[in-house]
User: Which sequence fits this backbone?
């Protein structure tokens, strides 16, 4: 290898090394100014320090919440307006920004195939929540037990009918009076539904 070829090879090596080193990502701190939940983007305000010690607020527009701008990722965090955040510039390119992390969220969206989950301050909603809340199992068991006990009391009252001939129906009257006095409370949806988890 002659000197010119070796020199060119070293030169090309340094150029390649420089390109590799500058492909790192840069992170900047900011505050979420607004969120577009349709396009899955946000606007972030970043304060930069000036030479005189003052600060200048700059807005970074259309920051993707995930790499996929305009589409819902399989797991996506919707940041809370006013929350502190980090914005990443991939390959140190100001045109390739995305939200890296945030300290507060309004909601989290999960999509796996046709199954969706939305979690927010109001609870968890699976697949739109059109079927209502999950069953409160303890309340449901209590309601069923009350109904079963009431049916058993009715069976006992009618089985006492056999003794009517000997006591003139006093036993039947006493049992049915007790049974009638213990009226069941009609079940309402709120008795059985956990609205914090909807399906």
Assistant:
């Amino acid at each position: 290898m002659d000197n010119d070829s070796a020199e060119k090879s070293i030169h090309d090596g340094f150029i390649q090394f420089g390109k590799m080193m500058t492909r790192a990502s840069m992170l900047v701190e900011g505050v979420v100014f607004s969120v577009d939940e349709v396009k899955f983007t946000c606007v972030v305000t970043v304060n930069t320090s000036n030479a005189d010690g003052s600060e200048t607020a700059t807005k970074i527009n259309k920051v993707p919440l995930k790499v996929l701008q305009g589409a819902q990722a399989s797991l996506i965090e919707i940041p809370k307006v006013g929350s502190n955040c980090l914005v990443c510039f991939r390959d140190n390119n100001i045109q390739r920004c995305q939200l890296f992390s945030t300290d507060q969220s309004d909601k989290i969206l999960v999509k796996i195939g046709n199954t969706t989950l939305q979690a927010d301050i109001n609870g968890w909603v699976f697949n739109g929540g059109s079927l209502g809340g999950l069953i409160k199992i303890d309340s449901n068991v209590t309601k069923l037990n009350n109904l079963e006990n009431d049916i058993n009391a009715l069976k006992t009252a009618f089985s006492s009918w056999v003794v009517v001939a000997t006591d003139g129906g006093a036993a039947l009257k006493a049992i049915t009076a007790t049974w009638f006095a213990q009226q069941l409370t009609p079940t309402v949806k709120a008795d059985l539904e956990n609205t914090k988890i909807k399906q």
Remarks:
- The chain has a mean pLDDT of 79.
- The chain has two domains: 24-121, 133-198.
- The chain is about 30% helix and 35% strand.
- The radius of gyration is 34 Å.
